[in-house]
Amino acid sequence: MRTVDIARRAARSLRNAKARTILTSLAIAVGAFTITISLAAGEGSRQYADKLIGSNINPKALFIVKDKALFETNAMQPGLREFDPNASTTNSGLTIKQLTQDDIDKLSARDDLEYVTPTYMPQVRYIEFADNDVKFVADVAAYDATIMSESAAGQLPPKGEQLADDEIVIPEAFAATLVDKEIVANTEQLVGETVSLTVVRPPSSLSAEQISAAFASGGQAAVEALGQPETKTYDYTVKALSKQSSTALAASSSIQVSPNQARELTEYTTQGTEAYQKYVGVTALAKGDRDPAEVKASIESAGYAAQTARDLQSLIFTIVNTLQGIVLGFGVIALIASVFGIINTQYISVLERTREIGLMKALGMRGGSVSRLFQFEAAWIGLLGGVIGAVIAVLVGTALNPTITEALTLGDGNYLLIFELVPIVIMIVSLVLIAMLAGWFPARKAAKLDPIEALRTE
Q: DSSP letter at 254?
């Protein structure tokens, strides 16, 4: 008997038991639904992570540090350790070695790096907008010219060009706050306005000679003046408002100045302290057509630690794949339950159709054809269940995508559930094969039935 004829007969047999076929297929559909959703969530998360990395980190960028413990999530340190004047303690209590100006000079002199920029962290006391007396506080960061940003008002420099030292970029959200506070009439008015950053230099340690000299020249008042912190105000003109993006990292919520100004602000507030010209890390670009991974290996051989944009992407993908694996596990559990359902359904079918099987074998149908008949019935059940589960998953996921996007603030055009045809087809084919495997046991029993004994069955 031809395989096509066997497949058609299997389909007719299932139509004669519609209720049982549909119920068994729905059991498979539950697993197919879960697997389809998990595949879509994994694909959506990976694509969003790609956008996130691409929008915030140049593919050729490297982040270089002196202490690789910064990249180790489970870094542990002994309770007692030797003092290092070039080390600092993070918020988590981890003591790390910092880069000094000598390190910056060495990295800048390398022929495989360009745009070597320390991670300046200016400490601004307060900020004033549009010559208004109301004071605000916010983070200040160096503008990254290697990434193309969008402007909500004004005009940002072209990619690769830096801000002028007297220019500043304000996040769009900050402008909305200033409108609410009636500092400016509208967000566009902020472009071209003056922004003042006031920084404070802490008093440096005074030697006995300095104290004596000050006392001799001006008495106690002169000594107290030496111990007072020094204040300085820097004025900038708003170049543009950076557009708020759903794929922007935390740096986009900072006021941005040129790297030269970020350095000046940082050095002013740390001069005379142990933090002067010491940095947690630097960012740099692999020069020309150099492979960032090869540059990273060369940097590490020089005694530093580095991460590339691909390393960060791999870390995010590892988290996504782990979460996806957990959801897939639930789908597999549902499939295992449905496999037993197929076996049970087919065994019942064999028992109900014992006389029919005996008649087919008496008329010359071979045992192998009988076995394939029941396996094809199982395959049809697997196909039906897989298609039902996948279609429902696509319909439900597509309908819920806008709500999920809004709830997770993923931004316009970004969806958590992205359905791709190839993985869904592979899943359905796999379900068909699993169903055929599950139907092998009842099919084997049917193939071994003695036709005479089968015909005698009531």
A: S
- 217 vs 313: CA distance, rounded Å: 62
Report which residue type is found at 12: R
b/e map 242-252, b = 16+ CB within 10 Å:
bebbbbbeeeb
Q: What is the C-alpha R_g of the chain?
A: 35
Strands of 146-265, DSSP E? 151-154, 167-171, 194-201, 230-242, 255-257
Question: Residue 91: what pLDDT?
Answer: 47
- Secondary structure of 301-326 in the HEC alphabet? HCCCEEEEHHHHHHHHHHHHHHHHHH
What pLDDT is stored for residue 450 in this prediction?
Answer: 57
pLDDT mean for each 10 residues of the chain (458 residues):
67 72 83 88 82 71 81 55 55 68 90 87 88 87 78 82 90 86 85 91 67 68 65 92 62 80 90 82 87 89 86 74 76 76 71 61 63 78 90 92 82 83 91 82 64 54
Residues 6+ away with beta carbon under 8 Å from 54: 247
Burial class (CB in 10 A: 0-12, 13-18, 19+), 293: middle
Return the sign of the alpha-carbon dihedral for residues 343, 348, 349, 353. positive
Report how far apart, in Å, the C-alpha atoms of 195 and of each of 54, 69, 123, 162, 236 are: 30, 38, 16, 18, 5
Query: pTM for this one?
Result: 0.60
CA 456 to chain centre: 66
Domain ranges of the chain: 3-52+315-456, 61-119+280-289, 120-276
Query: Residue 212: which residues within 8 A CB-CB, separation 6 or more?
Result: none
Provide the token pair at 166. Answer: 């007297």
Exposed (0-12), middle (13-18) or buried (19+): which is 364, by Cβ within 10 Å?
Answer: exposed
CB-CB neighbours of 405 under 10 Å = 19
Reduce the DSSP state of residue 128 to 3 states and report it.
strand
Q: What is the pLDDT of residue 451?
A: 57
Contact predicate 446/371, CB 8 Å: yes
Nearest Cα residue to 41 out of 455, 424, 419 = 419
Q: What is the dihedral of CA 111, 115, 120, 124, to 10 degrees?
A: 160
Beta-ladder partners of 355: none
**Beta-ladder partners of 128:** 135, 196
CB 191 within 8 A of CB 153: yes
End-to-end CA distance of the chain: 27
